[in-house]
Amino acid sequence: MEAIGERLATGKTSVIQDMFKEYEGVAGTSRCYAYINSVECFTSRLLFERTLNAWSGHVPCAENRFSNYARCDNLVDFVNNVRDLLGSKHGATYYLVVDQAERLRDRGPMLLTTLLRLSELTGVDISVVLISNVVWDKFRPRHGGAADPVSVYFPYYSKEQILQVLAKDCPLEEPAGFFLTFVDAVYEVFHRNCVDLNELRHLVAMLYPKFVQPVFEKQATRNEFGRLFKLCQPYFTAASERLYLREISTSEWQKHSTVASVKNNPEDVATCIYHMAENNDGMELPHYTKYLVIAAYLASYNPSRLDVQYFARGKDPSQKRKRKGGALVAAVDEDAGARDRQQLLGPKSFAIERMLAIFYSIIAEPVDSAVDVQTQIASLITLRLLTKTSAGERLDGIKCKCNVSLEVVRGIAKSVRFDVDRYLYNFK
Amino acid sequence: MTDTYKPMDAFDSMTESTFILKPPAQQQAAAKKTASKSSSIKPISADGGFTRLLQGKESSESMELRRRLFSEMWEPLEKLLVDTEQHVNQMGVSEVCSYVDSSYTRVESVEKGQLDQPFTEMSTAVAFAGVNTGDHSKLFGSLQEQLVTGGHHVALLESQYCTSLACMLKSMLEQILASLEVSQSSKGSGRQAAAGSAKTIAYDMGLLKLWWDEASAGAGASANRVVVILQDFEGFAPMVVDDFVRIATSYCHSVPIVVVLGLATSYESIHQSLSKASISMLNVEKFNLQRSKQCIDAAIRRVLVEATDTLSFGAEAYKSLLDQFLLYNFSITGFVKKLKFAAMDFFYAQPLSVLASMLKRSASGALAVVGCPIRLSPEQLELVRMQKSVQRFLEQQLEETGDSQHFRLALSSDEYMQNSVLPQLLRRLASFRAGYCLGIDLVVALQDVVPESLQKPIRTLHYYAISQRFDDCMHWKALSAVMRRMKAPDMDRLLARINAIVEAAAIPDWDFATKNEVDIPLLLQQTGELLANPEQPANPADAGAAEPAKRVRTRTDMENRPFLLFDNNSSDHMLKALDQCCANIEAILRVSLALVGHDV
């Protein structure tokens, strides 16, 4: 059987786990099912040994020196061990539940096929349940041979169902109707962008104390929903931009949002929230490294054919300034290729030599230590500010991409008083 | 060659022309063992590489003295640098330790209407450690040490050893199980045997849970945490970290796992590496350990400004030392290495480095001149005479005193040079160093009362002080301009601060240091009296020179440019007193920063 839900938090795992727990109680048998998380069991050996532990009821502990039921390095060992363990137990059906089963497709061509034909191979009644966000066709073994599972789709919840789930989070001391009104508002605000039930629950948990805060501060009554929503507006704005993306964590939100109160000044709330996301987030780079990042960005986003116009050190400074004018060059091509702008297409690869040429052109003072500059390039690749696109073993003609956003580059350029916008082609 | 052909040895291949023959594992292990037993760097010779200078004419005593001086100077200096770095990093490290201690404890909030969290998030500390990745090992090593001292079980992971999830978990579990083993053995429990068998079992997070359950079963609710430090987060493969986070979060409700992510760049790299689902499982708190600039400032203060009997650099050498740090890598290790190279160059290659033995710290902390333990050779004394600073000093003395006999003897008699002139020169040097430290302290005190935009770090102040004369430096002028706009209460506070600094300064003889030009303590006393009682000038000679009111209110800065006077409500006497205070403080700064300075 395969349980499929195309979205997260549709209850696949919990429903199946609860079902098997119930089944164990009803059937009076224990140890009939093994629950395996494919991410956690990242090798086949772990998967096999955990399965055997679960079916045999073996628990590793200090007494048995933390050993497993049996050592299984490959499929043959596994099949033999299953046959030895369960071959004599006729009549009972054993279940193997594999969560995030799409990960199994990367564990060799035969694993999934063998698991789905385990019953045939061992002669034991074994049923395999795969839980996945991916439809079966996407991770079906290419060579065939695997029995097609029965697919059970877990649809996403309707609004009513979501509200019912969220209503269960209502604190005991709070009126349920009031809480539901708030939950309904949160759903209406966030449901277009946030489809994960867990995330909605998180947002409700973070925002509800802010929503009722004016009630406890005697600024509004529980009946004045409009006023309460207005007072909570800065928090909703921050949540839609920062909290949902986890630029602000739960503890930071709980710690800092209590500092500001709408009672004092609503603008303070927004400032405080934005401040907590920006706090400690500065990237400080050495002086030449900043220029290297700027050069990498220019090399990644400017067409190489315009390098001479932008960066050549001509004899006539006035001509150079004219040529440098990014706006002038951009105006020519603005109508022609607005949709093909590199800014929209993302960074493109460039040769390190080109980046260095731009670096030596834009830097004001002469740089003599070539070794240190090369070391800095290596550091930038290690820090993933540059992404290497050429093959790892290639020593000459290395190509990279710039992995830094425009905002960051603008910040870096500002710190060295370099007007990066003048050198960017066709940027808006 | 048939299909059944099988290569017999490493050379027996037709497709490869380059062979890499690695030594067998046993040999490698033996080699490692031997290498670890013996020291990694063998001494070049019994003298530590010191050779006789001056074309071999240098005495063996002099060479031995240089070797001893280098050792005596560098070892405490290195310790000082390490201590300084640790001291500066201590605050950030302590913050992370406190966070780990308080993680997974429910904080009672005063806020009403709180909801329970829908799922358990894993406590995660994001430590911004700066781009100087070479220094991170020391920083995170010290964090690990402190956490272990606090009773936590810590695993420090480096990306180079964690190329896959299996390697990562193995490395993590080996470190944590080892720490558990140590704690169990200290308690006298009999679980060590089981720990030994851990090598034979698969490393996965389930094992950690089993171990944790076993370890915490007897101890009850434990305050200990399992801390996993990812020292260089950007170096880890994104998939590996993402899977690790998913696995760890599924266990954090039963094992209190705290993850410390060491970031060299910015928070954006976490968003680039981890999926939204993984990030949602983290309860992140940010910490700033990026203190390389503070470290370097503290090191420069203690080594180049305060520690007067260590190295001293000229402007160009100092700029080169600083450029390497500021322009390229922010590396403190690199800075210390360069400093050591400079010290080695001085003691290995300079015959006059033996003169450092003549400067010793007295019990009071002041720098004193003692006799040189060896006699300088004629070649060494000739080198002393060839120094431009010595030539300037002798010519200046001749101009001032007209004592040609002294001049002649200094140039012709080695005995006279060694016994009379050299101690005098070194005394001047000692006075300069002590006064210089005072001068920098005064500038720092002055900077504290000026706007932040005008404040410079001590590394820059030191550069200004050694590269420019007081009257030429724009920064001193800017500070002075702000000082001239001060109101009386601010000036009073500044004077009190300056008084405290001057009193604490260990300068044995002010008269010699200032060449009898300015008596700094007396000048400060007069300035204080003048400010307290502006109607009566401290110097009665000034009382008659009543300045016209218009002149008092038209002020100029050090470059004689007029500026707006803000404190227009003060009386003329007070304005004049303030003006005099500024002039006095400038005089003190000028004297202390240069003292007998630029001609040393």
TrEMBL record, chain A:
The UniProt record lists the keyword Cell division: no
Protein's UniProt name: Origin recognition complex subunit 5
Tree of life domain: Eukaryota
Subcellular location field: Nucleus
Domain Origin recognition complex subunit 5 C-terminal: 285-424
InterPro entries: ORC5, ORC5_C, ORC5_lid, P-loop_NTPase
GO molecular function: DNA replication origin binding
Domain ORC5 lid: 181-238
Keyword Lipid metabolism set for record: no
A single Gene Ontology CC term: nuclear origin of replication recognition complex
Organism: Coemansia thaxteri
A single GO BP: DNA replication initiation
Keyword tags: DNA replication, Nucleus
Coarse class of the protein's main subcellular location: nucleus
TrEMBL record, chain B:
GO MF annotations in UniProt: DNA replication origin binding
InterPro entries noted in UniProt: ORC3, ORC3_N
Any one GO cellular component localisation term in the record: nuclear origin of replication recognition complex
Stretches with biased composition (Low complexity): 538-547
Domain annotation Origin recognition complex subunit 3 N-terminal: ranges: 10-355
Chain segments carrying region Disordered: 533-553
Short name of any one Pfam family annotated for the protein: ORC3_N
UniProt-listed GO biological process terms: DNA replication initiation
PANTHER family named among the record's database cross-references: ORIGIN RECOGNITION COMPLEX SUBUNIT 3
Protein's name in the database: Origin recognition complex subunit 3
Originating organism: Coemansia thaxteri
Gene, per the UniProt record: ORC3
